[in-house]
Specification:
Elements (H helix, E strand, L loop, with lengths): L11 H52 L5 E2 L2 E2 L8 E3 L2 E4 L14 E5 L2 E6 L15 E6 L8 E2 L1 E4 L8 E3 L2
Length: 167
């Protein structure tokens, strides 16, 4: 009787194929995770600005005007600080952008209304001007190089700002 040689284990080619497949699946997973993180931060930005509009409207009801803007801040109040006047607290803490070291929120008083700007990370978001490289003429960078804002909320009594085409 001739004994058959039994091979146990995998060949080098089989191992390489498995490693390549695992690499492809990992890269797809990482990309999907990063995309969901951007969308999550953008949702927070939109919610933050919506909450600020409620506080600004309460301030307007009490004072018959919106607060002044000082270098993109509401009445000169630092983002992350309390938004209050005297004993009235409109927001315990003005929210900061989730990526505080890169971008910031910007407040602009315009006539009898206001605009709140932010920079969304997901450039496919339907709230961003979609034709070409269009932004608003406001700088949303915390420091360093300019980062144009691409999302705005306006008070109901003024129009949205003009969109600027960047080169």
């Amino acid at each position: 009787m001739i004994a058959k040689k039994i091979h146990q284990g995998f060949t080098l080619v089989e191992l390489m194929i498995v490693i390549v497949i695992i690499g492809i699946l990992t890269s797809i997973g990482v990309f999907a995770f990063q995309s969901s993180q951007k969308k999550s931060r953008d949702s927070r930005r939109k919610a933050d600005l919506a909450n600020i509009t409620v506080a600004l409207d309460m301030y307007n009801n009490d004072n018959s005007a919106f607060p002044i803007d000082t270098n993109g801040k509401i009445g000169g109040i630092e983002w992350g600080s309390a938004f209050s006047t005297g004993s009235i607290v409109y927001m315990i803490k003005l929210p900061k952008d989730p990526t505080d070291t890169k971008t910031k929120y910007v407040y602009e008083k315009s006539g009898s209304g206001y605009r709140l700007y932010a920079r969304l990370e997901n450039l496919e978001d339907s709230d961003i001007p979609q034709t070409g490289k269009k932004y608003y003429a406001k700088d949303c960078a915390s420091s360093g190089a300019a980062i144009n804002c691409n999302y705005v909320i306006t008070s109901s009594n003024i129009s949205a700002p003009d969109v600027v085409q960047l080169p």
